[in-house]
């Protein structure tokens, strides 16, 4: 902070025109006053900053106490008492990024069929594995057998759901289903490596819900890839018939390095200040830009959207059209629906369902309209009418 810029130059100039002595003294006094005020303000700012740093140091120390030296976590950037130099690795890309993006097999966004019968058996396996989160960007994830997010689960309202979780990872994990009304201390308890847990719940509440590992520190377990979506379909006739149905799971990634040469790991300091390097739909930046979702003109397309976070909301928007019907927070009650709205927030840890009917062929980007999210990968395309070409922006 500089105080010299506050020196009053105007009175000095006037002083030379009238009484140099009096104006000169006034100018010096005024200059001194400004200097003192500036210095006081600087000290107050400095105290506030120190207090903030102290609070942060305490929080960080507490977190480090919890996290210890877990595999998959880079502690090097986390000096207690300082945020240090938080370096962004956003937009890191190898020279052949376009070719990698083209060869990438996109996460299947199409809503799978509901398993037949009264019970939906869901087998989930957790494992430590390296995933790609953007073209050429590798990340040491705590994820599911198929990567991150976990598999999309689709059940009927009222169906019994039997969850079996097997932990093939190196540390304890668990699975918390937002669609369930169960005692979490029992159903969502930690499972040791090499062990399994089973529990059942009846999917009485329709909508789209998050599931995730709930083991501490939850921020880290979610950020490392342990999340997914379950769609609980209301009975036929409640919702309009959809011609296409897609599931999008939004999330953030906080990296310890660029992930180009060796896999990046989780950075807790960046997660605390919500400074993601990448934000994705279904775990990979921009994958539906290179491999668009599709629809025919006039078809009703339904997006089931979950925001896994861990911390940042998704402001769902489709460029070039308007959401015909939105079910905010995933409430399926007709009375709760909104009609003909432009952007609807899906909160971290929540869901939203969006029906859109596009008549004109073209490429329609779907985004989180909090545009830092778009720049870091949370964007895809809906290709209506099988048109050729790419988006220019
Ligand atoms: Cu976990």
Described by its quaternary structure, the protein is single chain
Strand order of the largest sheet: 10-9-12-17-14-15
Distance between the termini: 40 Å
Number of strands: 19
Task: Name some characteristics of this structure.
393 residues, alpha+beta, six-stranded mixed beta sheet, five-stranded mixed beta sheet, 19 strands, globular, disordered N terminus, binds copper (II) ion
Q: What would you say about this model in short?
A:
The chain has 393 residues and is α+β, with helices and mostly antiparallel strands. It has helices spanning 9-17, 20-67, 97-103, 184-187, 218-223, 268-272, 287-290, 372-375, and strands spanning 119-134, 137-144, 153-156, 160-167, 176-177, 196-202, 207-212, 227-233, 244-253, 278-281, 293-295, 300-309, 314-318, 323-327, 338-341, 343-346, 350-357, 362-368, 379-384. Residues 142, 173, 213, 215, 221, 226 line the site of copper (II) ion.
């Amino acid at each position: 902070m500089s105080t010299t810029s506050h020196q009053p130059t105007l009175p000095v100039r006037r002083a030379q025109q009238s009484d140099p002595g009096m104006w000169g003294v006034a100018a010096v006094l005024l200059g001194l006053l400004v200097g003192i005020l500036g210095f006081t303000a600087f000290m107050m700012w400095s105290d506030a900053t120190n207090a903030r740093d102290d609070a942060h140091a305490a929080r960080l120390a507490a977190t480090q106490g919890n996290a210890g030296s877990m595999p998959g976590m880079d502690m090097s950037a986390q000096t207690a008492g300082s945020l240090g130099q938080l370096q962004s690795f956003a937009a890191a890309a190898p020279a052949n990024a376009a070719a990698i993006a083209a060869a990438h097999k996109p996460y299947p966004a199409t809503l799978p069929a509901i398993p037949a019968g009264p019970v939906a058996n869901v087998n989930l396996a957790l494992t430590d594995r390296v995933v790609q989160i953007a073209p050429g960007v590798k990340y040491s994830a705590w994820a599911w057998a198929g990567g991150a997010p976990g598999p999309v689960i689709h059940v009927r309202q009222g169906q019994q759901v039997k969850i079996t979780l097997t932990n093939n990872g190196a540390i304890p994990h668990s699975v918390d289903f937002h669609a369930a009304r169960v005692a979490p201390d029992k159903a969502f308890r930690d499972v040791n490596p090499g062990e399994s847990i089973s529990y059942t719940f009846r999917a009485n509440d329709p909508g789209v819900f998050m599931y995730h590992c709930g083991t501490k520190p939850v921020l880290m377990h979610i950020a490392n890839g342990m999340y997914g979506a379950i769609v609980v379909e209301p009975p036929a006739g409640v919702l309009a018939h959809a011609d296409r149905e897609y599931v999008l799971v939004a999330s953030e990634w906080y990296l310890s390095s660029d992930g180009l040469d060796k896999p990046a790991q989780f950075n807790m300091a960046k997660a605390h200040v919500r400074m993601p390097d990448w934000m994705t739909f279904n775990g990979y930046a921009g994958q539906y830009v290179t491999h668009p979702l599709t629809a025919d003109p006039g078809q009703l397309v339904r997006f089931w959207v979950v925001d896994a976070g861990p911390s940042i909301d998704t402001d769902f928007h489709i460029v070039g059209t308007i959401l015909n019907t939105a079910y905010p927070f995933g409430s399926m009650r007709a009375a709760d629906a909104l009609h003909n709205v432009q952007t609807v927030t899906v909160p971290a840890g929540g869901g939203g369902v969006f029906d859109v009917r596009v008549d004109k062929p073209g490429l329609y980007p779907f985004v989180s309209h909090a545009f830092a999210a778009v720049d870091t990968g949370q964007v895809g395309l809906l290709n209506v009418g099988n048109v050729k070409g790419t988006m220019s922006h």
